[in-house]
Amino acid sequence: MPGLILQLISGLASPVIFVPSLLIGWFARRWWQVPLGAVVVAALSEAEVMLLELPGAEPDWADEPIAVIAPLVWCAAGFLLRAWHRRTSRRRQGSPIRVLPVVAGMVLGAIVVAGLSLGVGLLYLREDQLEFHTLQSGLAPGSADYETIFFQYLFPGLLLGQLAGGLIGRVFARPITRPPA
Questions:
Q1: Which of 28, 78, 120, 164 gives the lowest tally of CB atoms within 10 Å of its CB?
Q2: Are residues 73 and 114 in the same domain?
Q3: Statement: the pTM of the whole predicted model exceeds 0.85
Q4: 18-31: per-residue pLDDT in tens?
Q5: Largest alpha-carbon pair distance within the chain?
Q6: Is residue 181 part of a domain?
């Protein structure tokens, strides 16, 4: 069971899965394109893992249905974000942007996403998966694991959380306009 949870967290935290899945969900026009895109992303991600584990890599067919959950979550999130964005952009047009919601979104987003990314990095360290889930090219051989977690999980999580929180805060920074009577 811990292996399945680790696989699910790994899928949710992997940029190789969430970036294309969010984009597929954002650009999907119909609901049925969301699960189809999730299956495509899961298949490509599994193919990448198989290439990294060559030679002798064999798929674990019992875990394959779990591999579709993370791309499906991100595709659905992208699809729902686009619908939410269209709905709120129609209701919040033409008024000036307030600064406080943008700054609050940046601070909260940075704290939440940095905390989540730090948790994922520490989970990988505890489960002895950190070396597999990090880029080894930029670090000196034998560098500390906590330094790896800081530069490859916490710091990017802080920046991405700040960006995402600022963008979401920007949407809420415009007052809602009343429809004409």
A1: 164
A2: no
A3: no
A4: 889 989 999 999 99
A5: 69
A6: no
